[in-house]
UniProtKB/TrEMBL annotation:
Pfam families: PadR (PF03551). Signal peptide: none annotated. It comes from Solibacillus palustris. This is PadR family transcriptional regulator. Residues 14-81 form the Transcription regulator PadR N-terminal domain. It comes from the Bacteria. InterPro entries: Metal_resp_DNA-bind_regulator, Tscrpt_reg_PadR_N, WH-like_DNA-bd_sf, WH_DNA-bd_sf.
């Protein structure tokens, strides 16, 4: 994708993925990469920031003799995701009205 995407959209994508199921860092990176260009080294600070804001918690699970850190959305994270989804719908409508044509609502 050639569009520059902001941190709020990245937060929304991460929270939406984790709303479906808990995930570890690498799998989360792979899923986010399906919609935007991001590296693991970019994603981990985002995960730490979301965790610090109490939108995520972590837990470890053994995997092939090592611990794998999983991320889980919190209730506060679910509320933040709803806010971001609402903001996205408004933004999407405005961009569509400019790119596709039509009337701008509001």
């Amino acid at each position: 994708m050639t569009f520059q995407l902001g941190s709020s959209l990245l937060d929304a994508c991460v929270l939406a993925i984790l709303e479906k199921e808990d995930a570890y860092g690498y799998s989360l990176t792979q899923e986010v990469q399906s919609v935007m260009d991001i590296s693991e080294s970019t994603l981990y600070p985002v995960l730490r920031r979301l965790q610090k804001a109490d939108f995520l918690i972590t837990y470890d699970q053994p995997f092939q003799g090592r611990n794998r850190r999983y991320y889980k959305i919190t209730e506060l994270g679910r509320l933040r995701l709803l806010e971001l989804q609402t903001e996205w719908k408004i933004y999407e409508g405005k961009v569509d009205s400019v790119l596709i044509g039509g009337k701008l609502d509001g």
